[in-house]
């Protein structure tokens, strides 16, 4: 590494070549300059697993416990070991930079990404972050500490202005970053989407120049933007953001930056310094000695040591309760939250499977009922559908706008969804998804349609659903969190129904919230028979519980409910009170009832007085089932602590709940949230907000 002379490399670069280094080459790679010997580096998400290039349907990866689960152990050695393992996992995906850890404070108790962050406590967050970064970088992989700064909510995250006085800013929101910078020396930091005291994070000179580079002395690390988080050209470069992501450049196109230099808004010296930081980053990662010039191969390798660590950490993070009824999410592995932190695990261990393994050969019968409808989106239409050649799947056509002749046709497309997350990067085209549906039973069928832009759903040429405007929440669509219209259509077994979805890109309307999704086609068609949709599954669960010696109810949020891009609507478990009704009904007929709750945020337990025990498991990773059963059977002692405050009486917290709904809070107006004016009462606002604790 010492042989790489950054000054010599810079001296050989033209101004245009230096500019090219200041933005990504594609979604995950930096820009290489092969004729100057400059390779690229691959980045990948995220905090609880190295996912690889595809958010959906990519190579599988080890899924570690979420940060809130790791923090609840209060065990920095566990955090360090997970960091080392994450570094090793990152290398299997051909990447050398992991976009983690997330160290934002749980200021908003319903924050959609709280599960990604460690705690509401700055010191605990900082200590766990230090250990995680040290472990990660010991494996030769860069940490990317994010999101700098005050990115504590998802509601209006691209535009909200966090108004915070100096003292709470320093002592609460910046403290984890400061601890990590001074004690772990991270190689990269990612800026946030939001504004802080009137300035976007990517152009906030106070944070980037005075605090980060100046007061904390972090002079040679790389500052990158969050994906689509650059909001200007000269201002962002001057403030200190070295790398715009993703690529290709939106704000840092060479001709735009050159014009800024010519106009005196930027100096070549500033561009050179930003390029120097990018090259130094490559040098730290040994990219010059082991160069890549394009996206490298990814591998799915199950490491038994990592699996054992996931199981151990998941069990330690749990917070302290014959014929056994397993209800709710017992047959699902709630390993992680949704959004960019999600991974496709190598495998998933459900509590149902783990219980059967633990009690193998013993005289114990397990019975199961779901007991509560918790679906947020209807499932994709993947069965009983044939393309135009009679094969399973859909036919899908791609059109140039205004042209009725497709430029490309694909048969056998296997699902009723298309988005950037599936690797479908389709800009400024229109699509048709066509298939013949053969209903498996005569029933009413519920259908839903959502899209980034305009879309229509036709059945036998009749228009049954239409989205007439751009999706109001583009990121919400991407991560499955937008409300969608639903229609109910009667269908008969033995008949055939032609289903066609037409989707076009968003109509340009100056909506900055689209960001890098501008021009991108995205759509999703969901379906479910009324037999399943309207079934009385609560009565079935109560009947099973009545005849059981014990009932264990698995409650929580799956990735569709707790995800990046949105905050929680309330403290109550989804959906529409169904899980709370399940617990109350079961506890009334089976006194020996224990609850196992998997969420990354605080939730209300209105039935707590009715049950004998409660475990808060957070999101324990791919070994979730075994970690939980280890604790329930006594094989592992739960050593977890609550890392955030849980409410006993959420109706008394109306000011906080309103934040998710875009209403006034602390106070909030005109797209502003206030993080404290600096007085003692403001520094302890979290404690002041909660009148009672669980």
UniProtKB/TrEMBL annotation:
Gene3D superfamilies (UniProt xref): Galactose-binding domain-like, Glycoside hydrolase family 3 C-terminal domain, Glycoside hydrolase, family 3, N-terminal domain
Catalytic activity, as annotated: Hydrolysis of terminal, non-reducing beta-D-glucosyl residues with release of beta-D-glucose
Species of provenance: Fusarium oligoseptatum
Region (Disordered): 659-679
Catalytic class of the enzyme: hydrolase
Single GO BP term: glucan catabolic process
Stated family: Belongs to the glycosyl hydrolase 3 family.
EC code: 3.2.1.21
Domain PA14: 389-542
Pfam family, one: Glyco_hydro_3
Name of the molecule in the record: beta-glucosidase
